[in-house]
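Hi team,

Filling in the usual template for the complex we talked about on Friday. All components are listed, including any nucleic acid strands or ligand strings, so the model treats them as one assembly.

SUBMITTER: L.P.
PURPOSE: interface mapping
COMPONENTS: four
RESIDUES: 844
SEQUENCES:
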Amino acid sequence: MNTSSPETVACPTQRIEAFSDGVFAIAITLLILEIKVPHLHGDEAGQLGGALLRLWPSYVAYLLSFVMIGIYWANHHYIFRFYRRTNHLFNLLNAFFLMCIAFLPFPTAVLAEYIADPQAGHTAIRFYALGLLLPAVGWFAIWLYASTGYRLIDPRLSPSFVNSLTRQYLLSNLLYVIAVAASWWNGRVSLAICVGLTLLYLGPPKEPGYR
Amino acid sequence: MNTSSPETVACPTQRIEAFSDGVFAIAITLLILEIKVPHLHGDEAGQLGGALLRLWPSYVAYLLSFVMIGIYWANHHYIFRFYRRTNHLFNLLNAFFLMCIAFLPFPTAVLAEYIADPQAGHTAIRFYALGLLLPAVGWFAIWLYASTGYRLIDPRLSPSFVNSLTRQYLLSNLLYVIAVAASWWNGRVSLAICVGLTLLYLGPPKEPGYR
Amino acid sequence: MNTSSPETVACPTQRIEAFSDGVFAIAITLLILEIKVPHLHGDEAGQLGGALLRLWPSYVAYLLSFVMIGIYWANHHYIFRFYRRTNHLFNLLNAFFLMCIAFLPFPTAVLAEYIADPQAGHTAIRFYALGLLLPAVGWFAIWLYASTGYRLIDPRLSPSFVNSLTRQYLLSNLLYVIAVAASWWNGRVSLAICVGLTLLYLGPPKEPGYR
Amino acid sequence: MNTSSPETVACPTQRIEAFSDGVFAIAITLLILEIKVPHLHGDEAGQLGGALLRLWPSYVAYLLSFVMIGIYWANHHYIFRFYRRTNHLFNLLNAFFLMCIAFLPFPTAVLAEYIADPQAGHTAIRFYALGLLLPAVGWFAIWLYASTGYRLIDPRLSPSFVNSLTRQYLLSNLLYVIAVAASWWNGRVSLAICVGLTLLYLGPPKEPGYR
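RESULT (copied from the run log):
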C-alpha cells in the first residue's frame, strides 16, 4: 500500500498492528458491559447474594472470552513479527478477522444468558462455538494468504516451521467445526472442545525456526 | 498549530492521526453493543435458534457499518500521507468528520431494528443513507480545503491525481444524496446504492501520481 | 516521578498524554451510546420518521458534548507543550480533570432526555452546566498549579502570556458558574452561555509568547 | 517471547504496556455507562433534581472506582520501569490482572445500586470489596513472580526496596481480605477499609532504592 510512496517505510505493519491492538483492547474491555446488574425490588433485595451467585454463567463466559481475545492478541503480536510486507488483500483479511473478534461479546452474552437453560443451552453453546470458529477462520485465511509461497512472510523462516503453523491453525479450525457440529448431539462435549482449545493456546507459542 | 513553537515538529499530523485512529477503533468495536441478546421467557427459550436467526438485519447492519468504518480508517491513513501541514480549520473539519464516524452506530442500530418492517423500512434506510452521507461530506470538505491551491497537501502530487481524487469524492457524495432521495421512492434501490459504494471502496486505493 | 530512575527520560509527559488521549477518544465515542433507538410497536412503526426527528435534543446534546470534548483534547495538546516536568500532584490533578471529562456523557444524556420538558428542562440544563463547570475547574487547577512561579512550565514563556492564559481560564470558570446560577432563573440564558463558550473556544488557540 | 528473533528488542515490555494502557483507559471511561439516566414520566419530571441527587451512590461509586483504576494505571507505569524482561507466565499473570481491572465496572454498578439498601447494602459492599481484592491479588502475583530471585526485575534494585514493595502489596491483599470478611459484620467498616486503602495509595509512590 505504501510501496509507491517516495518515503521509505520503516515498519510496514505498524499502523495495522496499532489499529488491531485498539480493537483487541476495546473488545476485551467491552465484555463486562454484557453482565447486567440484577434488579431486585422491595423484599427481594435481601437475596442479592444469591442473585449475584446465579450470574455464574456470565462470569464463566466473561472469563472464557477474555482469555480467548487475550490469546488472539498475544498471537497477533507473535505472528506479525513474521510478516515483512502487507498488501491490500492482507489488510482486508485482517479487517475481517478483527470484525469477528469485535463480534465475540455478542455470542458471549448469548452463552451467559442461556447456558443453564435446559431448552436453549445447546443452541447458545452452538452459537458461541460459531463465534469462536469465525475468528479462527479469519486467522487461518490471513496466514494461508501470507505464507503461501512466502508471499508476505520473512523468507528466513524455515519451511518446516511454516508448515507446522499451517497444520496447527488448520487443526484449530477443524476442532471448532467439530465443536459446532457436536452441539446438536451434546452441548457439554461442544463446550469442552471450546474450553480445551483455549487452555491449549494458553501454553507458550512455538519457537520460530529459521533456516 | 505548532509552527510558532521553538521546537521542530517532525510529523505534524501524528497526533491528529493517533486520535482519529482511536475514534475509528472505538466506533467500530462499539457497533456490537447495538445487537441485543433476545430475551425469551419460559417455554419460548426453546426457540432461541430462530430468535438468533431473526436478528439477521442486525448482523447485516453490523457487517455493513464495520466495513464502512474500516474503509474510512484505511483511507484516512492513505490520504494523510499527502497532508504535509495542518492548521486550525483543518483540525476542525477532521473533528467534524470523526463526529460523523462516531455517530454511525446509531443509524446502524435504527437500520437493524426496522429494515424488515414493511412500514418503517424505507425510513430506516433513508436514515442510514443519511448516516453514510454525513462522513462522506466531512471527508470531501477536508480534502477540498486541503487540496485547493495545494494549501496543505504534498506539492509533489500531480494535478491530475489531485483532480481525480476530487472527482471521486464528489461522485461519492452525489451517490449518497441519490441514495437518500431514492429511499422515498424505493428502499431497496437506496440500500443497493449504499452497499454498492461500500463494495467499490473495498478495492485497492488509487496509486498516487507524482509530477 | 521518573527523576530518581537512572535512565534519562526524553519526554516526561508522553505517557500521561497517551493515557489522556485514550480517555478523550473513548469518552467522545461513547457519547453515541446514550442515544437510544426508539422502540415502536405494530402500527406505530409507520411513524419512525417523526420519532427520529423528535430525538433532536439527543442530536444537539451529542453535537455540543462532542465539540466540547474535542476542544479539550485540542487544548490538552496545546498546553502540554508548555509543561516541562510533571510531579505527583500534577498527575492527580490531571486524573481529576479526566474523571470530569469521562463523566460528561451522563449530563449529556440527562440534557438530551429532559431539555424539552417544561418542568424538568431547567434542572437538566443546570446539571449539564455543572457537568461543563467540573472539567473547567479541573483544567484551571492544573494550570494554576503548574504555572504558579513557573513550577512546571517552560521557563521561556513570557509572563504576559502566562497571565493571559490564567485570566482566560478564570473567566471560563466564572462564566460556567454564572451558567449554573442562571438556570434557576432562565434555562435558555444558561444554555446560551454554555453554547457561547463552546463556540468561542472553536477559535484558534492563542499564539504562545516567549521572552 | 521475542528472545529467539534475530532482531534486537529495545523495549521488551512496550507492547504489553500499550495494551494494558488501552484496557485501563477503556475500563475507566466505561464506568460512566453504569450510571443510568432516571426515567421520570409525566408530572414526576418536575422532581428531576431530586432524582439526580438520589443517584449519589452512583457518583460515589464512580469516583471510587475511577480513582482506583487510575492508581493502578499510575502504579503499572511505576513498576514496569523495574521489569527488565517478560516471559510467557508473566504475560499470563498480567492478563489475569487486566481481566480483574476490566471486571471492576460490574461490582461498581452493583455497589451503586444497592449501597443504600438496608437489606442488600452489606452484600453489595462485600461484592465490591471482592472486586477490589481480585486485581490486588493479580498485582501481587505478578510482583512475586517477577521479583523472586530477581527473576525479571532490574538487578540494580536494592533487596531492601524489593522487600518493602513485597510487604506493602501483601498488606494490601490482607486488608482487602479483611474488608471482605468485615462486610458480614459491618458494611461501613468494610467500605471504610476500601476507601482508606484508596486514599493511602493516592500518596506519591515509594522512591526506588538502588544498590
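MY TAKE: The two ends of chain D are 29 Å apart (CA to CA). Chains D and B do not touch (no CB pair under 8 Å).

Thanks, L.
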